[in-house]
Specification:
It is built from four helices and six strands, in the order ααβββαβαββ. By secondary structure, the protein is an alpha+beta fold. Strands 1-2-3-4-6-5 form a six-stranded mixed β-sheet, with helices on both faces. Bound molecules: coenzyme A. Keywords: Acyltransferase, Cytoplasm, Ribonucleoprotein, Ribosomal protein, Transferase.
Length: 143
């Protein structure tokens, strides 16, 4: 992902996360850290951006920062392809484990993460602004 992608990215961000979308400034801040500690990708269908995902990596740990797919393209393999790329990049950077947080009320994303081998390791009570808990998940990458 580059700065030129931001208009498309922010449209997807606001449509996907209407109550807690990142600001464009936050997204720019993430891109400014590429490639040092961040790796952001976009997914294209017929040359149009339909999704994006980003990872942070430092020392031997990584975090999935965000992932979103336009609603019309969800369930078609786009998110899985991006998640697989983030896991590859985390391994390339010698991360031994990768973490993420997901809303307790997002069973679809939790199912996708479990499908990719993430395991629940804890709960952050009332982590989100509306009082919803965050489920913390981890996948070990070594071996
Ligand atoms: C979560 C999200 C990124 C997943 O992307 P997607 O494109 O819909 O997912 P895919 O179709 O690529 O599915 C990925 C894999 O998970 C599997 N999967 C999908 N839903 C699943 C579920 N509920 N339980 C278990 N596995 C599931 C799929 O079968 C697929 O596996 P395969 O590649 O082996 O066939 C997407 O649905 C999305 O943007 N949702 C809204 C935003 C969001 O919730 N983001 C995450 C915030 S933490």
């Amino acid at each position: 992902m580059t700065e030129g992608d931001l208009p498309a990215i922010m449209a997807i961000e606001r449509a996907t996360f209407p109550y807690d979308a990142w600001s464009e400034g936050m997204m720019r801040g993430e891109l400014a850290e590429q490639p040092r500690t961040r790796h952001y990708v976009v997914a294209l269908v017929d040359e149009v951006i339909v999704g994006y995902a980003g990872m942070a990596a430092a020392a031997d740990q990584a975090d999935v920062q965000t992932i979103a797919v336009l609603q019309a393209h969800q369930g078609t393999g786009v998110g899985g392809a991006m998640l697989a790329e983030l896991l590859r990049e985390a391994r390339r950077r010698c991360a031994r484990e990768i973490f993420l947080e997901v809303r307790d009320d997002n069973p679809r994303a939790r199912g996708v993460y479990e499908h990719f081998g993430f395991e629940e390791i804890g709960i952050r009570r009332r982590y989100y602004d509306d009082g919803t808990d965050a489920i913390m998940m981890r996948k070990k990458l070594d071996g």
